[in-house]
Amino acid sequence: MANFVTPSSGGLRTALQELGSGYLAAGHEPVLIVPGERASDRNTVQGRVITVPGPVLPGTGGYRVLTARRGVRDLLESLAPDRLEVSDRTTLRWTGEWARRHRVPSVMVSHETADGVLRTWGVPGAAAGRTADRINARSAWAYSRIVCTTEWSEREFLRIGARNVVRAPLGVDLVRCRPDRRSTALRERYARGADVLLLLGSRLSVEKRPGTALDALAELRARGVSAVLVVAGDGPLRPGLVRRARAQRLPALFLGHVGDRESMADLQASADICLAPGPAETFGLSALEALASGTPVVASASSALPEVIGDAGLAAADQGAAFADAVQDLLDRPERARREAARTRAELFSWSNAVNAFLAAHDTAPLRAPEPVAPPEPTAPAVRAVRRPDGAPR
């Protein structure tokens, strides 16, 4: 079960599709329940997908939630699942209690940190931490197991002493996303003669902090760097970002949601640097896809992405100047070396290993041997200092 999934959503939708397809290939019968505009029940390549009508959550740019608890409860009881997996720690937490009463082993997947999301929405640090601890304690009690995709996201559960937490990294499509998709013609189409093509592939919402990408672009242009930013994504902040780019005469091209995965893979491979400014990211599938495409990443040092990207990118403080510093540092590396490092890092993650890790979390043995790739060790983030205009650090 999952909330906050739309036809134009990114990482969560991809994860649900890949995990469902993997469960199906492993011989299981996956059923996904999500909210939508109207009811439907379809058999797909990821298994059975049941859509239950749910209202749009205001201010989220189209995200819907499952609010008809009685109807969803009746649906669960009619399905009589052997296992329950839930990708929402807030409005669906009651499903953990339902599973406990029905003696169904259950898993809650932590796709974001509670305190990180609260902070991005303006809740002060101490209050965000206390509220997150209460939410997480209830989740840890309600579900048999909590799955975290990174060590970074695991910390907030370890902080409250939760003992039912396991780690299961997500994966990336290493076939679709590959460096040889890099196109000089496509790059020139978007760069328009500029020296540097930056890419932001993200939902344009508060918790993703897309404005930092414009801050970085403005800083680079002020330093004399000929850079262009392409934004692939949509969301409630898009109109304001477009107005700002026009007012400041920033060369930023807003593509909206790029629904064709092949086109997105071409774009990711053709960019020079990918920006991932979201401070609450617990994994970052878009950034990992960029690495698989041979494109290094500059990520928020406040997120889990430094752990994911390792030495195939750089972490930066959540300021435009720090992101600009990191972009310039990456560009100082030889192009071939930085692109090979990006691909090599991405190859540590595969969807088959991710599926097997999730099946293990469900106490279900994988039906095929995992690929002989060990999960990466956490990498300490290299936070970039902000520089004064004269170049001196501060």
Write a compact overview of the structure shown.
This protein has 394 residues and is α/β, with parallel strands linked by helices.
How would you describe the overall organization of this protein?
By secondary structure, the chain is an alpha/beta fold. It has two domains: 11-167, Rossmann fold; 179-347 and 378-384, Glycogen Phosphorylase B (Rossmann fold). It is 39% helix and 16% strand. It contains 15 helices and 14 strands. The strands form three sheets. A seven-stranded parallel beta sheet has the order 10-9-8-11-12-13-14, with helices on both faces. Strand 2 (40-44) and strand 3 form a beta hairpin. The chain starts with 10 loop residues before the first helix and ends in a 10-residue tail after the last strand.
